[in-house]
Amino acid sequence: MLITCLADLADKTTCPRLVIKVGSSLLVGKDGPRRAWIEALIAEIAAARTRGQDIIVVSSGAIALGAATLKLDKGGRGSLADAQAAAAVGQIALSGLWAELLAKHGLTAAQLLLTLDDLEDRRRYLNATATLTRLLDAGAVPVVNENDSVATQEIRFGDNDRLAARVAQAARASAVLLLSDVDGLYDRNPADPAAKLLPLVKGVTAEIHAMADSGSASGLGSGGMTSKLQAAEIAERAGIALVIANGTHEAPMARVMQAGIGTLFLPHPGKNGRKAAARKAWLGGRLRLKGALVIDAGAAKALDGGSSLLAMGVSQVEGEFLRGDAVAIRDGAGVVIAHGLAEYDAGECAALIGKHSRDHADLLGYAPRSAIVHRDQLVLL
Ligand code: GLU
User: Fold this and answer.
1) What tens digit of pLDDT does each residue of 130-175 get?
2) Rounded Cα–Cα distance for residues 152 and 148 (Å)
3) Each residue of 189-226: pLDDT tens digit?
4) Which of 23, 59, 131, 298 lies at a 20 to 30 A Cα distance from 39?
């Protein structure tokens, strides 16, 4: 079921998995972490978990926190070296804070430091997906930030908006909630008394970009509308809903989901109107086939039933591909029945095919993956 209104974000059927991005200015004030506000947000996160929703947090604030500790001026953003040093110091406090306050609700925090490259490179994308999925299955709350201390590009305000959209894509979330200090997207500069908040956006068009350019930007510590629209575009293409909402109020999630205040960007419905179709189109867009796997009748039947491709059911490996490359999956008669991203390179596949999963660790000499092609990275044709 697709998300069509803000209330759907609180529904575990329409929104089983939600990514919440929290901006620096919400987390860190003049005197350090805004503990009471974070505690209130975590109470809302715990309530969502009780409703049966998976929550992933994307938390900014490392640079702001570290800059205060190191007494760096310009909020630690005077130079790249300052920002990277500040992040290294601040990240410890930031993760510690999330861990401590989530634990009060019996929730386990898990820290993931990613770069945008990690989520755009196919191999590392698979690793991030597997780790996030495993953490959520184990009941943890992943708390993600950009790995600022090693990011090679300039750290920009708003990087975490796009990171949140990419994380949602990797974790197959239903929606992303970007909490910052604006109510949402306005049709013109919000300082203009005639400005109206847009409750719903169907497609990030040139017209929508023009509205953001008209100065619908927020204050310090936020990436403004531009990075939020970039995030909305990533989410839209991946079939994921995205909401821009104001986090400066007490209980910001309720303000979005109950009072309905915010801008909802609808996901692209895909060719035949289903979220799955949008995901397929996105996966399909990456598919330049590097090889093929020939499978037996049992495996073909299993794939049809929605299972992953296991090594047991593969009889032949063709081509030179790397982990994360797209491969064709053919049946014995030569009919291509699926495309998918390989969890192993061609050599490893050749070593594993026909072998039972319990023997994989010995054959490889390291911890094996759960499948040759995971069902989430597979498109049946
Ligand atoms: N990763 C940065 C931090 O933790 C924030 C980036 C952003 O403003 O989006 O301070």
Assistant:
1) 999 999 999 999 999 999 988 767 667 668 999 999 999 889 999 9
2) 8
3) 888 899 999 999 999 999 998 888 765 444 334 457 88
4) 131
CATH 2.30.130.10 segments of the chain: 289-380
> Can you tell me the distance from the alpha carbon of 138 to that of 176, in angstroms, rounded to the nearest whole number?
21
Q: Is the CB of 158 under 6 A from ligand 1?
A: yes
CA of 55 to the centre of ligand 1 (A): 19
* 146 ligand 1 Cβ < 6 A: yes
Provide the pLDDT confidence category of residue 346 given band limits of 50, 70 and 90. very high
Between the CA of 220 and the centroid of ligand 1 the distance, in Å, is: 12
Q: How far apart are CA 186 and CA 216, in angstroms?
A: 6
Provide the CATH number for the domain formed by 6-279 in this structure: 3.40.1160.10
Determine whether the shortest distance from the Cβ of 24 to ligand 1 is under 6 A.
yes
Distance 176 CA to ligand 1 centre (A): 17
Q: What does the block give as tokens for 230?
A: 């970039």
**Distance from residue 228's CA to the centre of ligand 1 (Å):** 13
Cβ of residue 62 lying under 6 Å from some atom of ligand 1: yes
User: Which tokens is 345 given?
Assistant: 């390179």
Ligand 1 in reach of 126 Cβ (< 6 A): no
User: Where, residue-wise, is CATH 3.40.1160.10 in the chain?
Assistant: 6-279
Whole-angstrom Cα distance, residue 187 to residue 301? 51
**Of the residues 145, 180, 220, 222, which should be mutated to test ligand 1's pocket, given the most ligand atoms within 8 Å of the CB?**
145
Question: pTM for this structure?
Answer: 0.84
Separation between Cα atoms, residue 158 and residue 11, nearest integer Å:
28
